[in-house]
Amino acid sequence: MVGNGAVGESHEAASIGGPPPKKGRTTTLLRGERNRGKGDTDMNSHRESKRPNWPDVLALGLALCWAGVASGQTPWVGQDSGATVEPVGWQNRNELPNAPTSTLDAPQSTTYWVAMPDGILLATEVSLPTTPEPYPTVLVRTPYSRFNPGGVGVNVDLYLQEGYAVVVQETRGRWDSQGTWYFWKDDPADGHATIEWIAQQSWSNGKVGMLGRSGAGVTQYAVAQGAPAPLKCLAPAHESPDRYHLAFQGGALFYNLVYYWLHNNGLGYLYDVLLEHRLWDDWYDDWLASPDTVQVPSFHMGRRCGST
Predict the structure, then answer these.
(1) pTM, 2 dp
(2) Considering the domain boundaries, does residue 273 fall inside one?
């Protein structure tokens, strides 16, 4: 156990995102262009060509709403955990102008097991730039593998090159994290605890922003109400804080999303639980029920509803 309830282990990370965008990419992004990827078909090519490139959209969104967060600002006052994290190198550093000097080693990260208030340990991957600390932090909390942040639209290399620490955490009961996943019920408390843990680390300047699409967008809405002071920005994409109408659009089950998402993620045993709540009741968390408690600037990128 290291410091504030977290165990650290250094190792090389798996593939964590593609190369950063080249100069001038923003113009392409705003036109809505992207390269076609695996799974695109000729029938869908016209529609697919107009979809945004999610890593770039999320990067732009965070930049727009997180303009006041800079690595040189005064750190938030918190307890230093004393944990040591190895510096992270990156590749393709010359893709961006004025990129800070770095080694050309493959990106590395450190795994921490971050303790939640009830003692459950969550698998948390920390990647740091090689520029002098402290850093502002990009936090991604995901029900998917922490070694595939690109799957939720996050290009880790891009943020490392810009001087941000990147923390990717697997939510409760998912992949290597302990506990049981139960419809995002634990994510408000777990998210708040993780944000506070980040602010207490020696490499943190005490400022945290969150981003990510799909399941990594849900976890952002979960922390919005009564968020800890270190959280400075949210940038959720392709998600909604309205959990009922996401599952039952207009009262009709969104089968193509709900059934397959639960079963594809090994959670099919919860399908019948959801069906017990076909009509809205207080079983559903209303994460925006008290808007006066939401003080975090947010950049919302809409969810596309209907068949996927």
Answers:
(1) 0.70
(2) no
